[in-house]
Amino acid sequence: MAGAVTAHLSDSASVRPKHVTEKPIVRWLLTGIALLFLGFVVLLPLVAVFVEAFQQGVNLYWASITDPDAVAALKLTLITALISVPLNTVFGIAAAWAITKFRFRGKNFLITLIDLPFSISPVISGLIFVLLFGAQGWFGPWLDSHDIQILFALPGIVLATTFVTFPFVARELIPLMQAQGVQEEEAAASLGAKGWQIFFRVTLPNIKWGLLYGIILCNARAMGEFGAVSVVSGHIRGETNTLPLHVEILYNEYQFSASFAVASLLVFLALITLGVKSFVEWKSAQRAKGGEANGTAS
Amino acid sequence: MKGSKARSVLPGFGLSMGFTVFYLCVLVLIPLAGLVVKTTGLTWEQFWNTVTSGRVLASYRISFLTAFFAALINLAFGLLVAWVLVRYRFPGKKLIDSLVDLPFALPTAVAGIALTAIYAPNGWIGSLLDPLGIKIAFTPLGITIALIFIGLPFVVRTVQPVLQDFERETEEAAVMLGAYRWRTFRRVILPELVPALLTGFALAFARGLGEYGSVVFISGNMPLKTEITPLLIMTKLEQYDYSGATAIALVMLLASFLMLLFINYLQWRSNRRAIAD
Amino acid sequence: MGLHLELRNVSKAYGGHLAASDVSFGIERGKLIGLLGPSGGGKSTLLRILAGLETPDTGDILINGKRVNDVAPQERGIGFVFQNYALFKHMNVFDNIAFGLTIRKAKKAEIAERVNELLDLTGLRGFEKRYPHQLSGGQRQRVAFARALAPRPELLLLDEPFAAIDAKVRKELRTWLKQLIETIGITSIFVTHDQDEAVEVADEMLIVQQGRLEQQGTPVDVYTAPKTAFVAGFIGQSQIIAQPRELVGFGDIALPETGRAIIRPEFVEAGRPHEMTTPSASAKGTVRRVFFRGAHLELEIDLGGNRLAAHRSLDQEPIQPGEEVSVLIHRIYVVTDHNAVMVENPLKVDPLPVHI
ABC transmembrane type-1 domain: which residues (chain A) (predicted)? Predict the structure, then answer.
């Protein structure tokens, strides 16, 4: 799955004799085209957010992000992430443990099921909860009679968010723990370590960086989810609007600068996520280097 | 699943497996089953009429074509970006490498408004192209651009590790047999990248089919012209047409499953080869 | 026969590390050469310089008397077998072998004929539709070999061709390769760090260490007349004795000050006094340990504080550890930092040392 911490850019790979690389002019041309493409597709939107956000000055920017509705949206977003990220983290660890440390039939099928939310349109992810808890849904009448509000309220938003971000931690951990095998855990067990001791003393130190990235990515998606949350939230200003929904409302009301100002908060979140990813990759590259020096190339 | 865990001395199979399956059922499988059951409330004829009405068919066509062309462009440029990042040295490479993941980490709604600001007729690039009669935002072209943004990391990140692990000896073998650069690429390197390229393409395409947040702002949402299928589901929901929304969702879900099966098949095939090696 | 291939004063450095240091040698047409040396000694670098995969910092490479430094590797007419074979994973055996011919735009019928010929030659008939991942290590090696030979190169280079193969299959493959190369009559150079392999397969050996060419010669030459201390110590099994003068029989000979002695077990005779051919030249030693080496026994003997190894036939009466034995050293190699001299035991034969 894309996004996994896999590729390490090694400098030695880039110094290549002439018969296995291109002529300098071709190299420059290809690099130029690639950078131009990335500039237009990725960098330009990033720049656009900030330029548009500050177009009407810093004061408006500040006013936009301290607006009560914006603050309420930020709060809701944080609460949502605070519930769904830990849930998915516990699930991700449990699933990765079961999948990578044991042999059982149907393992690939289980992995496919875990991937499922990746391949489902966010709109459909929201829709399934409407069908369950909506007025005409399975539990709708029952919920109604007991005066429990799930849809168009926090529980619905949390459910949809958790569904969409469900695979992230598991997906980050499974390849990592698969590569590490079970030898260290078995050695710990043979030395008398018990269940949780094995996990906290042996497994966790080995996976902590991958786990951190999984959590950060899961968090970024949880805070940024738009489609699914849009379906279940009901768009009640100051109450069921998350940050991305608030961005949409401001945009649709032609308050462009305010909209981009709030959006820039989410961009910071994305940049922090990327920073953590780079850090984790750097860390694991160092580990790999250390491993090679000890003669145990991984 | 029986008889296999006995081989391991490690604890926690029951607990971790139990929790995994429970959580998966409660959060994913039961809600998804709800969708299928809901559609069975429709007669076959109702279902068929819903999912083949003119506006719905047009949305399939737009979603399919824009996702396809976006994935195709990502296939070419994703390969180029991966190639440049793995093979060449230039200043700022690390930074640019992490930038590739931006579409992954950036909330889709933010991408949507940013792209619209750039490509709208009064936007940065849109205003340059508007006098030439070229419109990007509020046309299928705009949707394609949003989907290129969303799908790029999928291709780059699946091709990059394969290219990284590509043995230089294999290229040198081609050199010693008389092949120059282009032929080595065409005949030796490219064929070995095909599984990764296909996987990346399929992932980008699948993501593009379901994408909502980045597209709604730039598409203009004109029925029959720039209305994508996920948006149509949304519209039906807002009109309280739950069964209509569900029927269309089921069709999309089937398409996603097919893509998922295809992707898993590709990965299974290249894994099998790697193990045999 | 003129020289097919020549290297003149070739040097190559990576960073501060000299991988080839002023290497010169010539190779006659049709010879099978073993490039032998310890791992990391620069063997593969020399091979890759010959192939054109690396560019030397200084020096010339000549093929048929023509300088080829500036000829692209694609045009040198060299077949190369890589250590891990580097087969094209997405091509079947037939297409792998045919690759070099298709690049040269040979006609289809011609390609088919040549590939079939090689399939027969390498015993791969019946496997032509298989992919590399469906082949055993030995079969992959044969494919790599056939692929390198297909465009009819004049020169064949093999980088550790047997390194990735099980010990058992390796022996068979060695014999097979030697016969095949003899049949085709192509000049070949193979790199190895295994001296048994080099001795068994090569017509001529090049011993390389730390980027320097230590010695060139037939296996017999290199074995019996090592020219440098490194070669004397590297080839064959040997013990090093710091003070050769202490050895019985070698006390009076003219030896350089810094000389050490290298002694090989095959030149040490050990046994009960009545078994010795020249009892007068023997010294007394104690057997420490006895090892069974398959075809013979190896005795570890303590001789006045020095440890020596000696071979003993299984037919002879067994000797137990702790027993005192007579030890006769027939021949030693006296080495300094720069050269090696073979010295026969003067008490046994000729009093004059033989200088090489």
Answer: 74-277
